[in-house]
Amino acid sequence: MACTNLTTMWVSSKLSISDSSSLSFRSILNPLPLPNHNSSPSRSSSVSPIQSSLRELRDRIDSVKNTQKITEAMKLVAAAKVRRAQEAVVNGRPFSETLVEVLYNINEQLQTDDIDVPLTKIRPVKKVALVVVTGDRGLCGGFNNFIIKKAEARIKELQGLGLDYTVISVGKKGNSYFLRRPYIPVDKYLEAGTLPTAKEAQAVADDVFSLFISEEVDKVELLYTKFVSLVKSEPVIHTLLPLSPKGEICDINGNCVDAAEDELFRLTTKEGKLTVERETFRTPTADFSPILQFEQDPVQILDALLPLYLNSQILRALQESLASELAARMSAMSSASDNASDLKKSLSMVYNRKRQAKITGFDHRTLVSLDHRFASSSLDTDRIAMAKNSFKLSNPLKVRMAESTRIREKYQDRVPVIVEKAGQSDVPDIDKKKYLVPADLTVGQFVYVVRKRIKLGAEKAIFVFVKNTLPPTASLMSAIYEEHKDEDGFLYMTYSGENTFGSASANIALP
């Protein structure tokens, strides 16, 4: 009977080697467990745990692959959008900073002339309005969390000073956060939009203007995330009203938050992959004379410029926040894609290992060579490796019994097995003769191990004997051990083979 890719044999109990007509073979490609020796090799209707586990692993791998595609797409979309967002930030900074300086010079002259302007009047602070700018979407790392934590810290600071406060929330994430906390007073909930324009900024500016003019609040602070670079952003608090006495965009402590230099990042390709090029340039600022002459009334000019000032500062905050959000999302999705790739590799390794275990019937890691773990100084290992039946010949009975007893006490779920090649057999010698074999391993599975150890080709067969008989292939090694173990506590097995499948060698001398 000629066939290929056949390795594992199952036979009747106590089969003699000369009874070649009773031999049959089973394909290694058959994923079912080995049948009992008295049953036919029919397919089982139940699903094995290994098969179920393999399906679950395949589903997880497919799920990770799909997630990686999504995160990679989101990364590319964010990378494309962040370019336009940062250009809007960089292009808008010179205008807003110059406008603040012009207003400062006008305000300074009006104060010299003792003219009162409500939006520039500094009065004792009793209540503060906090304009908190967050994003509309998630999946951007800790972007939204950082600015919300900044707002919470500022609220606690105001409470510690005994000051009242109200919140103007801009952005869906901030809105949902404050809606879940009714104890925080919120004046209005607004949305920033995916592309901030003067229209969205004007809605916030109108609310801020009415609160400050009506003296419901004495100070307005703008909390947003300042865009620094693709990998760095800073939550800042900027005093919006009253107008800063320094003519600069300042934080609550009067420190300037204007950027002396701007960084522009250009998305390009290099060696077939997306990359980012950085450009750094200094923000242009105009020089104004401290003494200005106005053709119109300075109050009229200031009244016309102040709404423009509010709109420009809020629009700048929205643009900086959007650029920071997109940069954070690009970074977060890049990390998520890398993690998905690593997880996919790990799951694939586990899947391949379990698939191999399904084919062989057990995990190779559970079989441990005794030569590595029980090296005895009293044993001549070189001589044992060279001789047939050398373990019995080279070691007294007491030494063998002591070693087997020690092994059984330490590893109760395994059996010690000595495997050697039969004399005059044409199969290769085995490199390791002593094995710790799991008790629930079948004889057929152990035969596969022997084949792998001697590197036997698929065109040759192998027979493993215990006391000159072929044990049932589906029998457990623990049962064979209890029935055929030697007086020294070891199970001795001998393997032999034939040149082709179907005809056992008649001239094999068994020990």
TrEMBL record:
Cellular localization per UniProt: Cytoplasm, Cytoskeleton; Cytoplasmic vesicle, Autophagosome membrane; Plastid, Chloroplast thylakoid membrane; Vacuole membrane
HAMAP family: ATP_synth_gamma_bact
Keywords noted in UniProt: ATP synthesis, Autophagy, CF(1), Chloroplast, Cytoplasm, Cytoplasmic vesicle, Cytoskeleton, Disulfide bond, Hydrogen ion transport, Ion transport, Lipoprotein, Membrane, Microtubule, Plastid, Protein transport, Thylakoid, Transit peptide, Transport, Ubl conjugation pathway, Vacuole
Family annotation (InterPro entries): Atg8-like, ATP_synth_F1_ATPase_gsu, ATP_synth_F1_gsu, Ubiquitin-like_domsf
Protein's recorded name: (rape) hypothetical protein
Highest taxon above the source species: Eukaryota
Pfam families named in the record: ATG8, ATP-synt
GO biological process, one term: autophagy
Covalent lipid sites (Phosphatidylserine amidated glycine): G502
Molecular-function GO terms, alphabetical: enzyme regulator activity; proton-transporting ATP synthase activity, rotational mechanism
Family to which the UniProt record says this protein belongs: Belongs to the ATG8 family.
Membrane-protein topology: Lipid-anchor; Peripheral membrane protein
Protein species of origin: Brassica napus
Entry GO terms, CC: autophagosome membrane; chloroplast thylakoid membrane; cytoplasmic vesicle; microtubule; proton-transporting ATP synthase complex
Entry keyword annotation includes Transferase: no
Function: Produces ATP from ADP in the presence of a proton gradient across the membrane. The gamma chain is believed to be important in regulating ATPase activity and the flow of protons through the CF(0) complex. Ubiquitin-like modifier involved in autophagosomes formation. May mediate the delivery of the autophagosomes to the vacuole via the microtubule cytoskeleton.
